[in-house]
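Field log, afternoon session.

UNIT: design team B
ACTIVITY: writing a sequence onto a fixed backbone
BACKBONE:
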């Protein structure tokens, strides 16, 4: 009798009651759409944050990330490269479309957008053929002065790339740093105490028709199978202006002397004279010249190894290699090298 009553009660439950205990969870996509390309924070209200996703549009939170609202879903592209909030007026928000990455799945944008009501509405203000935006920087006291670093097409050449400047809030633009239709801007920093001084990182890159390297011919040094077909060039590097973009000088001291690739920049706010740069170059992963060798050549031993409880264990020796000629054998444990303990 009790069992029959239990079955009747279960059958009487409505669909709504059965679903009361269920909650939603995100199951993807979390790779292509999940890449976050830029973050901008309202300096006067740090709980207000904007993020731009690779193919997920622009999202805004006003409670430090507890909840998020999509605010850029109706403008022909969901690929975002850069976001900036005007320091002097946080209602002014700029978005550069087109993620500035090199993936075979990277989507392109359709220009630069501006909001004057904190993201409630948007107006496209130009650079429709820039395809990918690397960085946007807004003057600290005059929100009409804006610098936009356009990276340009990933899959080919185009002239709408380089550094652009507007002094009227996006009504007109001047291209103030440009070399060719292959080199664009990947990053940029304004001096925190001198808005006329900027550092600009130029980047030359392009993908070809292959999603990845087909195998032959062998890739040159510095490339792997998922790299773009070109990722460094003669005009890539760090450039500095101290007059608001009227003139530029290439920074060379202490930097690679070969063709450079992607560069990331940042300033130490306590002492803006200290700048950090992460620099990719044509000699990436290569070592200085070895005795009797050429620049970039690594010393060749001819062994494979793995960690051991003490030292390193040799798991393989190449026939005819220096290691084989020296008598090293598979299974040997190396405890020191060059007088230094391993």
């Amino acid at each position: 009798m009790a069992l029959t009553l239990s079955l009747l009660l279960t059958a009487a439950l409505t669909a709504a009651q059965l679903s009361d205990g269920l909650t939603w969870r995100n199951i993807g996509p979390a790779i292509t759409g999940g890449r976050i390309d830029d973050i901008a924070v309202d300096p006067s209200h740090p709980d207000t944050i904007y993020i731009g996703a690779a193919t997920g549009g622009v999202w805004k939170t006003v409670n430090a990330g507890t909840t998020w609202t999509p605010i850029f879903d109706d403008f022909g592209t969901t690929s975002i490269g850069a976001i900036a909030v005007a320091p002097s007026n946080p209602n002014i928000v700029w978005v550069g479309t087109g993620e500035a990455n090199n993936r075979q799945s990277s989507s392109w944008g359709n220009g630069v957008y501006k909001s004057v009501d904190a993201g409630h509405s948007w107006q496209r203000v130009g650079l429709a053929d820039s395809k990918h935006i690397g960085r946007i920087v807004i003057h600290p006291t005059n929100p009409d002065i804006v610098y936009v670093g356009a990276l340009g097409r990933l899959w080919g050449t185009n002239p709408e790339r380089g550094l652009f400047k507007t002094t009227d809030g996006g009504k007109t633009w001047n291209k103030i740093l440009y070399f060719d239709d292959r080199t664009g801007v990947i990053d940029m920093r304004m001096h925190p105490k001198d808005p006329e001084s900027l550092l600009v990182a130029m980047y030359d890159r392009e993908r070809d028709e292959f999603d990845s390297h087909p195998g032959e011919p062998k890739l040159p040094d510095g490339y792997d199978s998922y790299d773009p077909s070109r990722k460094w060039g003669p005009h890539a590097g760090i450039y500095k202006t101290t007059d608001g973009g009227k003139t530029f000088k290439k920074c060379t001291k202490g930097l690679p002397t070969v063709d450079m690739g992607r560069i990331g920049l940042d300033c130490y706010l306590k002492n803006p004279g200290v700048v950090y740069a992460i620099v990719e170059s044509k000699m990436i992963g290569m070592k200085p010249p070895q005795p009797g060798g050429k620049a970039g050549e690594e010393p060749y031993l001819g062994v494979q190894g793995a960690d051991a409880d003490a030292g390193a264990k040799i798991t393989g020796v190449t026939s005819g290699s220096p290691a084989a000629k020296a008598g090293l054998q598979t299974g040997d444990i190396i405890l020191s090298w060059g007088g230094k303990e391993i």
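LOG NOTE: DSSP finds three helices and 23 strands in the chain.
NEXT ACTIVITY: expression trials, pending approval
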